Amino acid sequence: MFGLIAFAVTLHAQGRGVRLLDTQAGRPGRVVKGAPYSADVSNQTTRTLADGNTIRQTSSGRVYRDSEGRTRQEPSLQTLGSVAPGGNVPQLAFIYDPVASVSYVLNLVTHTASRTVWPQASAGGPVNLNRPARPEQANTKRESLGTQVMAGLVADVTRTTQTIPAGQIGNSQAIAVVSERWYSPDLQVVLYSKRSDPRAGETVYQLTNISRSEPPAALFAVPADFQISDAKPRVGPPGGPR
Amino acid sequence: MTCREFWDRMPELEAAGQPLQHARECPRCATLVEQQKDLAMGLRRVASQRHGLEAPARLEERLLEAFRGQTSAPVPTPAIHGWLRWPAQLSFAAAVMVLAVLVLWKHPQQSLQPVAGPEATAIADLDSDFIPLPYAGEAGSAEDGNLIRVEMPRSALMALGVPVSDGEAGEPVEAEVLLGMGGAPQAVRILQ
Fold first, then answer.
1. Same domain as B93, residue B27
2. pLDDT at B157 exceeding the cut of 80
3. Among B54, B65, B155, whose Cβ lies nearest the Cβ of A121?
4. For the residues B50-62, what does the mean pLDDT come to?
5. Residue A160: how many CA atoms within 13 Å on its side-chain side?
C-alpha cells in the first residue's frame, strides 16, 4: 500500500513514456559481512519469435557492498529494462544499511531521499545458514557442474532442468527449462546465470568489472545536500495489503 | 455419558478405536463428529494436493517480526472448558479451511502453483497480486525487493509479457514494478 510510502517524486515524461510516482527500497533478506565488492550488473533477455524476429531487452547497473554488509544498488531505470523506450525514470540509488537498520532511496536528480527505519529486532540479524534445503520440485533435476573460475573468483556451477511433461499445459511435447548458475562462495553472490525457457526466451545475468576492494564509505550515506523524508517500513510483501 | 464427558474423552476414544456410543445417542454430537471427520478428510486432501509446496523463504522472518511487534506484553489466553475444546477447535479449523478455500479460489495459480527454480521461488515470495514476469532472471534480485510505482502506457505492459487488449494499448496504467539488481523488472502489479 503506497499510502505507507512517504517519499513521492513526480517526473512527467514526454509522450508515452513512464512517469515515476513512488519508490521504496526493500530490505534484503540476507546480510553478508566481510566480503566487500563492487561490480557492474547486467541483465539481457532475448526472445526469438516464430517468424525469426527477435526481442532483446537489457538493463544494467552497478552494485556495491562494504565489509559491514551495507549495500548500494544503482540500477539504470531510464527505459525500465527496455520495455519503455520513451521512459524517463530518473537515476535512483537504493541503499540498505544493516548496521543502522535503515534503507534509503536516493533520487540523484532531485537530490531527495526516502528513509525507512526497520525494526532492529531482526534487521541485520544472524543469517540462518542451517535453513533446510528446499525439496526438489517434481520433474526438476539439479546437477553440479563442478567449480569454474570467473573473473578470478571460484564459482560453484549448478544446472537445474525443469521438465514440463507433455500435456501438462497443453504442450504436445515436453518442455525443458534449463537454468545455469555460477555462485561465488567467497562473495556469496551469483556471478552469472542463464535461464533458457522455450516459452520466454533466454535470460542472462552477469556481474562484470568485479572489484573486491572496500567501496568508499560515502556511497552508503546520504549526501549532505539531500533532503530526507521518512517512510514507514513495509510489513509483509512489497506494497503490503491493499 | 454426557456430552461434556464425551468430548473430554473424545481423543482417547478415537485413538483406541472404541465405538462412539454417545454419538449414536446424541444427534448433536453425532453431527459434530461427522463434521469433524469431513473436515479432517478435507484437510488431508488439501495437504496432499499441496505437498511439495513450502512457505516462502522470508515468510518465517516476517511472521517472527510481526509476532515480536504484537507481543511486547504477554497476552492472556482465555480458558476453554475441556468439553468445549473439541467443538471450538472444530470451528477454528473450519474457519481456517474456509479461508484457505477462499484464498485458493481467489488466486488459484499465482500464489500456490508450484514454481521451478530459485528465481521463481523468490518471486513467489511476493504478494500474489504481483505477476512474475516470464523472463524474470536472477534469484538474488527479487530478494531485495526494491519497488517503483509508475504510470506507463499499457503497451509497455505488453513488453513485460502482460497481456493487453488492442483497444487499451495507448491508455496509461498505474503499476508497481519490482526491480532486480541492475533494474531488470522481475514482477509487476497492476494498480488500475
1. yes
2. no
3. B65
4. 57
5. 19
The answer to whether the CB atoms of A235 and B134 lie below 8 A apart is no
Same domain, B163 and B98: no
Residue B111 lies in a domain: no
Cα dist. B126→A96, B57, B121, B174 in Å? 19, 10, 9, 18
Q: Which of A79, A75, A96 is nearest to A88 (CA)?
A: A79
Helix axes B82-106, B27-49, angle to 10 degrees: 40
Helix count and strand count (H, E) for chain B: 8, 4
Q: Name the nearest CA neighbour of A23 among B137, B189, B192, B145.
A: B145
Residue B86's pLDDT is what?
A: 56
pLDDT, average across residues B96-112: 42
Flag whether B135 is in a domain.
yes
ipTM of the complex: 0.73
Does B122 lie in the same domain as B52? no
CB < 8 Å to B126, chain A: 237-238
Cβ-defined contact of A83 to B145 (cutoff 8 Å): no
Scanning every residue of chain A, which has its alpha carbon at the shortest distance from the alpha carbon of B63?
A236
B54 to A29: CB separation less than 8 angstroms, yes or no: no
Distances, alpha carbon B173 to alpha carbons A140, B126, B151, B156, in Å: 37, 21, 5, 9
Position B10 in a domain: yes
Task: Note the pTM of the prediction, 2 decimals.
Answer: 0.61
Range of the domain at B157: 117-190
- Chain B residue numbers with beta carbons less than 8 Å from the beta carbon of A89 are 148, 150
Query: Grid coordinates representing A187?
Result: 562473495
Looking at the structure of chain B, the number of domains it has is 2
**Is A155 strand, coil or helix?**
strand
Query: Does A29 contact B143 at a Cβ distance shorter than 8 Å?
Result: yes
Averaged pLDDT score across all residues of chain A = 80
Cell of A158: 549448478
> A2-26+37-122+139-231 adopts what CATH topology?
outer membrane lipoprotein receptor (LolB), chain A (2.50.20)
Residue B9 within any structural domain of the chain: yes
**DSSP-derived pairing of the beta strands A227-231 and A112-117:** parallel
Interface size A-B, in CB pairs within 8 Å, comes to: 205
**Chain A residue numbers touching B149 (CB-CB < 8 A):** 2, 5, 20-23
